[in-house]
Known about the structure:
Layout: H1 2-9, H2 14-27, H3 32-40, H4 46-52, H5 58-70, E1 74-79, E2 85-90, H6 92-112, H7 114-126
Antiparallel strand pairs: 1-2
Helix pairs in contact: 6-7
Amino acid sequence: xxxxRIRELGHIDEAACRRFQSTVEFTGRKWVGAILLAGVRGARxxxxxxxxxxxxxxxxxxxxxxxxxxxGLIERHVQPxxxxxxxxxxxxxxxxxxxxxxxxxxxxxxxxxxxxAAAAAGAARRGAEPLAS
Length: 133
């Protein structure tokens, strides 16, 4: 029953509510989801992220990568080569977040078309899978 489900969801204390709100606001910032998705799809170098996230500027990408690193969602790796090589990979925490967002990815595919809906339903039947391409 809907009212029981609403009651169950309403049993979140104030501190948890604030943490949830902060998390939703951060993950909902423009480009954050696209950057995380690019990382789980294989982007490692700055240029690969820029190519994968269509429309993002270099400045905004640099800012978002720093924010994601500060939140522990992306790990920055510096290799002392000449010139220095910097790569970014999703952290364990970032991968956990993307796994939690997988149903949203499935929902977005399903709402696009009947074929997308069939693909999302198949993915749901098979259980958690890597994010859609």
